[in-house]
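Handout, tutorial session.
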Amino acid sequence: MMFEEVKKILVEEMQVKESDVTLAAELTNDLRINSLELADMVLMCEERFGVEIKDEDLPKFITVGDVVDYLTKNVK
């Protein structure tokens, strides 16, 4: 469920090809998301899931799976 929501953000808002989005896909290397786009994605996740993502947690977001795991653990 969480993966599908994150995937939707990446495809609809970040113009990432749907077939490229997997749990193992790296945000920067595979999906070509730069630091500004990552910040936008974080804001969208915060709004959609009602969670605050701390700046110090951003370096942990290497793969789509990292984002999904983080949100799964922190969304109430």
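The second record follows below. Compare its token runs with those of the first.
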Amino acid sequence: MTRWEFVPYSGVTVDISLRDNPRYNWLLVLGLLAAIYLLINLGLPRLPIDPFAKAYVVQPILWGLLAWAILVLPKYRTAGGLRLKTAIIQLALMIGFFQVVLYVIGGLFSSFGRSPNSFTPTGILTNLVFVGAMLVGMELSRAWLINRLGKKHTFLALAFVAVLYTVLALPLGRITGLRPELASITYVNSTLLPTLAESMLASFLALLGGPLAAIAYRGILQAFWWFCPILPDLAWVFKGLIGVVVPIVGLAVANSLRVSRRRPGQARREREGSLAGWIVTTVIAVAIIWFAVGLFPMQPTTIISGSMRPTLDVGDVVIIAKVSADTVKPGDIIQFRESEGVTTVHRVVEIQESEGIRVFITQGDANSEPDANPVLFANVVGKAVFDIPKIGWAAIAVKEFFMG
């Protein structure tokens, strides 16, 4: 426990302890997490030191210092109590093992490939230090935050911590580089969504069972991806499905276990509303994200140029319906791929056919001439069905802030 002594002129000694002043300690933890994340993503790449040292020496030191800082801070009692702690840790191990088994079964139906990681003794030890330091630092701080913030507003604290540690687990460049294109959709479904679901479950486990429960669950997954020489080569849809569904089911099971340990009357009331509320909220959140990245027949896209004024303006969000190009007629507004990673929303002004190949001639409403390149039917993403003015400005502002 960190302790200071202040001796005023009167000669009376005043003992000031962090344990006696815990109100703002969570701000200190958030500040440390933000500093580590920004240093790793923005500071270290600019330092003139060896890349190996940046990744495998400096980063473990940073996470180790965070773990030490958490251990120095005032202690806490988990929301689950001592009676539930052992059961939650066992459940965390079972969920992690079950998720790995599903990944392996998925590999049997797709294929397997060699891991890109090094499996020499030095490589294994280096990766163990790298992964272990990050895992311990993140889960100690996660458990401390969730148990400090979740005493009064459990759901809000869980949502906040889950999103926070999702961001911490992903490179800043990948987050700010998300765009409505196939590569981003693949990344969101195969990496971002599973990371968010994993973070939600780890946060709930940490709330009930402390850092050991979260380490037990995430440690099995990290050990599988980092230290298994042969890994399943899953399609991004199935990888995302397993990575999202298993943590959601695990969350429901953990919550059911928590409720079952309560007093009969209290357990019955919580079981009626809490479990259903968790499942519905999680499914809705995942559905919203899936809709945003285009896994449903409709998807949103943000207008970032003025070429369609006055019909569509910068910051408008247009809902694109995925329809067959054969149903598109002159006058319809479509979204189409111009090149890899670039999409445009313009109006169809004409349909032409040459040598059996039909193409769309498109033009922005604010442009004086049609677009230079005709649009192949195969490049049509979908047709605009309606728009919501200006709500996309928030996404534009955030992206501009991070990307300068």
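Points raised in discussion: DSSP finds eleven helices and eleven strands in the chain.
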